[in-house]
Amino acid sequence: MLQVNKKVINKIISASLITVLSAGVAVNGSYLNTNRDTRKAPERSKSAMSVSSAFEKIYESDKVAYYYREDRDIFAIEDKATGYVWKTGLDVPFKKQVEDAKDAVNGEGHYTVERLAEKWKMTKVQVREIANTPIEESMNEQYTGIANSLISIECFKGSGESMTTTTYASASYDDKDGDSSLEEVSGSNGKQWKLNAVFDKAEIGVEVMITLGDDGSINYNIPYDGISGKGIKKLSSISITPFLGASGGVQTVYNEKEKDWTDLQKKYLTPGYVFVPDGSGSLIRFAENTSKFSDYTGDVYGSDLSSYMYYYSALDDSVPLEDPVMPVFGVSQGDGTQSAFVAYADSGDEFMTIIATPSSTDKNKIRYTYAYPKFSYNTEFYQVTNQAGDAYRKTQDKANEFDIDMTYDFLYGDGSNGEPAADYTGMAKAYREHLIEEGILTVKEDEEGDIPMRIDFLMSDSKKGVFGTQEVAVTTTDDVKKILDKLIGDGITNINSGLMGWQKNGETLAKPSDWKFSKDIGKKGKFKDLMKEFSDKEIDISFSRDFVSINSKMINYYGNAAKHLNTQYLTVDKSKVLPENSPVTDFSFALPTKSANWLTSLYERISDYNNSITVKGISNTLLSSHSSTGPTTTVTQAINLYEKAFEKIKKNGATVNMDSPNQYLWKYTDRYLQSPVGTSQYVYETDSVPFLQMVLNGTMEVYAPYSNFSFYSQADMLKMIDYNISPSFVLTQKPSYLLASTTSCDYYSTEFDQYEDLINTIYTTVNDVLSKVKGCEWIGRKVLDDGVIANEYTSNDGEKTVIINYTDEEVTINGESVPAQSAAVIEGGVN
User: Fold this and answer.
1) C-alpha closest to that of 282 among 683, 746, 731
2) Do 415 and 549 belong together in one domain?
3) What is the CATH number of the domain that holds 815?
4) Domain limits at 813?
5) Is the same domain home to 771 and 820?
């Protein structure tokens, strides 16, 4: 038996796989971009796909025409205004097809051209076209099927340590691996179709409902009830159109002299990029990479730790990954004015993974860059059988039950007509408009004036004492009053604050719903007076609480802690990142039902003090819980629990501050705290972009990470202006070294006296620019030159452009000078 007790699963990427470059720097008078910057737009695409005679037109509107190729399971979407064509697959023949067609044309082999045309259900002309088609060099028959197909499924095969997965495509070379048929939905006038995919070897059938939009969008709906067959218990995942928008590839051309396919020929490398929601947003530009890379794998809303391979994990000091907080990705082809698509899920997103595969010349890699969504129905894990940790490898007893609803919006042009542009800014605009239509985001009226600033306070935590634990108080209610009064006196008046560690026993050991106060930081009356006094000054002070992270010294796990698929309590070992004398190093996660109940229970008490709350844990941690009879709470049910809890709070008019909330909570969010300003820094990620901030713009207040912790340089201040986010700090009155033996030791620099000047400098620098576009709609972003950004805003008063000059040299824009390392607002647009 395999020993898995105390096994370490490191959720954090090793430093060897990322770049550690700082923001772009000036070298000899020029600006050197890194992947923390945004580069200039790619070159214009010089070629485009065409629709061959093998495609049949199945629907058209005034704007677009849709075609379908049955033998390869491919849709083609043609924009009538530009002639630009997208195909849902690569549209390439199988190697064996090309060889058979060439033999038939040459009068060799077992088939004539006429016989192949009959067998393949096509014309003789089309057979001859296949005979003259180069062979895909980096793909075998299985991958060619995947590259063409509308959907592919992945299934578990075998058991125990010999368990593997096999992928089947809906347009496979062998019909038993996968075959499909398309039929029109009666009465839809060509707009709705049903794809019936049959995977005989996997013993699975999948029905895909397809809606063709008049605006040039395609929607795929895969209801769980549309998945059939006894093989469903082995179904791992379903992927949709993985090679839509792929770029790259190498082919082998037939050599007449050698009578064989011997001549390598690179396919046209379409300029452009893949957008993935890594951090604030990341671009992966199309390139011919010589290195071998792992895929970008973004588990939307983060991984469900209860479905990990192991129930036990450990943290170290490696750089953490950024989990996608929204189920969206896209591809742009050309210079940002030609064509793009943005794809997003409206259902099944909690089981969605976004995968982007960078091209590689390595002989074992596919020489394309491509991106697609994968939806997980089952997972493998180690089932522990005894207290010694013996275990065996298995899959879930029952598949996850959910419906997939996936939409692809195709974008064309430069955005000058008011439509979303064919680049990442257009993707953000299109997605934002969709979320507004769905009621997930609501545009809020924002009056002119100063931007807000977030000032959080850490009040107390606990450390080991001679007998048990000892509370360490570093900020009192009187200290909070004194600090805020000081900042108001400095001229910063648009402030909101969250109080951390306000409960008795401090940030780590207080139960989430406890309503007990410590005399060392302030009794109930002190807190009530504090909040009332500053509420009268229009400064919002809220109690802050993490409702998910728990430990055994805080609370009994029985009935409170979430369980893994193997029914063990989830455990995270933080001993490598916490001090040796920390009062606790092993942590777990609360049941979603408990988290939701604690939130509403605590809010009922808080609302008498101030109708505002700061929420952590629930905002960005999504997990299930299990028992020996199956799931007690699925991730879908957890989302519903959280939504109902916040609906109850919002009905009372509460202001909700959330720490990096996932998209399903955005409709309840008033302030988005700790928004990312970069990416996970994979080496193949070429650009960082403010996609998240552009989507959220005008719907809620958005705040930067705490400036205390290495986010206070001039370049960082410019990044806040560039990303249109407000500054934030976390403060204490006493020195932070007093927290060195607590689990709050990572707040290593917080003393107000050390930061007062910096707070004023950062706020003044950022506010001087962003206050001038407060209340405006962010409509575009351009890179004018390396290190020079133009953010375009509009309002009833006209257009304004914020120029951010990251370089060490002065630049002149529209006749106005912008000094080095500074930002300025220019009236009107910028060409």
Assistant:
1) 683
2) no
3) 2.60.40
4) 776-831
5) no
Distance of CA 68 to the CA centre of its chain: 31
Tell me if 818 is assigned to some domain: yes
Closest CA to 363 of 143, 146, 682, 139: 139
Strand order in the sheet with 260-266: 135-136, 250-255, 260-266
Asked if residue 50 belongs to a domain, the reply is no
Name the residue with tokens 């969206």.
Answer: 328
Tokens of 334: 């050309």
Q: How far out from the chain centre does Cα 172 lie?
A: 31
Kindly state whether residue 11 falls inside one of the protein's structural domains: no
Q: How far is CA 307 from CA 303, 397, 586, 631, in A?
A: 8, 12, 19, 11
Element (H, E) at 146: helix 141-148
Summarize pLDDT for 183-237 with one digit per residue, the tens. Answer: 999 999 999 999 999 999 999 999 999 999 999 999 999 999 999 999 999 999 9
Question: Are 738 and 797 in a shared domain?
Answer: no
Domain count, the chain: 3
Query: Where does 70-121 show beta strands of DSSP type E?
Result: 74-79, 85-87
Encoded tokens for 357: 């595969």
Which phi and psi (to 5°) does residue 135 adopt? -95, 135
What is the radius of gyration, based on Cα positions, of the chain? 28
Q: Of 385, 809, 380, 374, whose CA–CA distance to 628 is shortest?
A: 385
Residue 573's DSSP bridge partners are 314, 586
Identify the pLDDT of residue 21: 31
Task: Decide if 103 is inside a domain.
Answer: no
> What average pLDDT does the segment 164-177 reach?
94
Does one domain contain both 669 and 810? Answer: no
- Domain containing residue 270: CATH number: 2.70.98
Query: Is pLDDT at 9 greater than 50 in this prediction?
Result: no
Q: Are 220 and 242 in contact (CB under 8 A)?
A: no
Terminal C-alpha separation, the chain: 67
Are the beta carbons of 394 and 159 closer than 8 angstroms?
yes
Say whether both 529 and 429 belong to one domain.
no
> What whole-number distance in Å separates Cα of residue 235 and Cα of residue 379?
9
Last residue in a domain, options 413, 437, 461: 437
Q: For residue 624, give both structure tokens.
A: 């299930």
Same domain, yes or no: 496 and 541: yes
Picking from 387, 410, 437, the residue at the C-terminal end of a domain is 437
- Of the candidates 531, 451, 539, 491, the one whose C-alpha atom is nearest the C-alpha of residue 728 is 451
**Phi, psi for 602 (deg, rounded to 5):** -70, -40
Write the Ramachandran bin of 566: left for phi over 0, alpha for psi from -120 to 50, otherwise beta: alpha
Residues forming a β-bridge with 732: 751
Higher-pLDDT residue of 20, 164: 164
Amino acid found at 628: S
DSSP-derived 3-state class of residue 201: coil
Residues 754 and 802 in one domain: no
CA 154 to CA 237: how far, in whole Å? 5
At 113 the three-state DSSP class reads: helix
CB atoms within 10 A of CB 777: 14
Rounded Cα gap, residues 246 and 145, in angstroms: 15
- Reference 237, options 181, 332, 307; nearest CA is 307
**Contacts of 44 by beta carbon, 8 Å cutoff, 6+ apart:** 271, 334, 335, 337, 338
Inter-residue contact 195 to 210 (CB < 8 Å): yes
Longest dimension (CA), the chain: 96
Taking the C-alpha atoms of residue 314 and residue 11, their distance in angstroms, rounded to an integer, is: 8
Helix (H) or strand (E) holding 105: helix 95-105
| CATH code at position 644 | 3.20.20
- Residues 543, 482, single domain; the answer is yes
pTM of the model: 0.94
Structure-block tokens of residue 262: 């011997």
- Token pair recorded at residue 806: 């990251």
Q: Which residues pair with 77 in a beta bridge?
A: 66, 86
* Nearest C-alpha neighbor of 274 from the set 333, 228, 335, 351: 333
What does the pLDDT read at residue 797?
Answer: 87
